[in-house]
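Q: My labmate handed me this sequence with no annotations at all. I'd like to see what the chain might look like in three dimensions before we decide whether it's worth expressing. Could you predict it?
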Amino acid sequence: MNREWHKEHAMPRRATAKERIEWHLEHTRHCGCRPFPKGLLAELSAAQKRQVEEASGRRGEQTSAAVN
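A: Here is what I predict for the chain of 68 residues:
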């Protein structure tokens, strides 16, 4: 978990769907301590879905490299 990122990037109170999507996209890029919410995935554009997949894949690569 990237505690510094979370400390500096709180989810806005009463966030709109757009704000939630943007927050979770950034979260996936910078922390990703949990998966992207399935409920929001349906609302993403194709480009945003690719961003989630790419960011999730990069984290997996970093994790496996750190273990080896």
